[in-house]
Design a protein that fits this description.
Elements (H helix, E strand, L loop, with lengths): L2 H8 L3 E5 L15 H11 L4 E4 L1 H11 L3 E4 L15 H10 L3 E5 L11 H11 L4 E5 L3 H10 L3 E3 L17 H10 L4 E4 L5 H8 L5 E4 L1 H4 L1 H29 L1
Parallel strand pairs: 1-2, 1-8, 2-3, 3-4, 4-5, 5-6, 6-7, 7-8
Helix pairs in contact: 2-3
Length: 247
């Protein structure tokens, strides 16, 4: 899919992230279950899917026919980044038919000694027509990736690096600042847990948003409900204790 066509399709919309990692209930070695999540996302009206792993890129494209933002999560020795960290993963994603390749563009240690700019330059030389999405965690990284020539910025890593604040809410301020200051599309992603947060994220001025865990990770969803109930019970217990003390 051409870049202009893809960007037009997703503008103002919600992309659904369909991912499962080892250890999660929907991660099955024999056959991926993510194509079923992608089927549901398509029926709900999403214009594109974000997914991790070569088999899921292939399965989801076959199932839905939607454009796919593909990535590979892998941890190499010496690398702090783990989202599509080397050319090997880029090669595999392109061969699998990823319409967009997402890669870690945080300014963290790379085991190959290359800078983010050098890595992006190598991808551009080998795949000049590829659409690259930079997953970043803060404003500095976003500006740097933009200047390095990526096509899309994603706030994916905000809160997931050691130097960004750990909050329960999306980083609306990062979305807003980048949307105002760069001339490429910004996709708001990360900790968008409910419809209200999705609407608020789009209101920051970003091009589109990605929602994953709140839709496609049932263990995470169930745990969020359980924590809320447990927290409410604790608050109730505190209140009853104060009442008894005052009696």
């Amino acid at each position: 899919m051409r870049k202009e066509e893809f960007l037009s399709a997703i503008r103002g919309k919600m992309i659904v992230s369909c991912q499962a990692v080892a250890g999660e209930p929907l991660y099955v070695e024999e056959k991926s279950a993510m194509y079923l999540m992608a089927r549901a996302a398509k029926q709900a009206g999403t214009p594109a899917i974000r997914t991790s792993g070569i088999r899921d890129v292939i399965a989801i494209k076959e199932e839905t026919g939607l454009p796919v933002i593909g990535l590979v999560k892998i941890q190499y020795e010496g690398f702090e980044s783990y989202i599509t960290p080397t050319m090997k993963e880029v090669d595999e994603l392109i061969a699998a038919g990823s319409d967009v390749v997402a890669l870690d563009c945080t300014l963290r240690k790379r085991g190959d000694g290359k800078s983010v700019a050098e890595f992006i330059g190598e991808i551009r030389e080998k795949y000049p027509d590829s659409i690259l999405m930079a997953d970043i965690s803060n404003y500095e990284e976003g500006i740097h990736a933009w200047k390095c020539g990526v096509d899309i910025l994603g706030t994916t890593m905000s809160g997931y690096t050691s130097y960004t604040p750990k909050t329960e809410e999306p980083d609306y301020e990062l979305m807003r600042r980048l949307a105002e200051d760069v001339d490429i599309p910004v996709i708001g992603e990360g900790k968008i847990h409910d419809p209200a947060a999705a609407v608020k994220a789009l209101q920051t001025g970003v091009w589109a948003i990605v929602v994953g865990g709140a839709i496609t990770r049932p263990l995470e969803i169930a745990r969020r409900f359980m924590r809320a109930i447990e927290d409410a019970e604790k608050e109730k217990g505190k209140g009853e204790k104060h009442e008894n003390c005052g009696a």
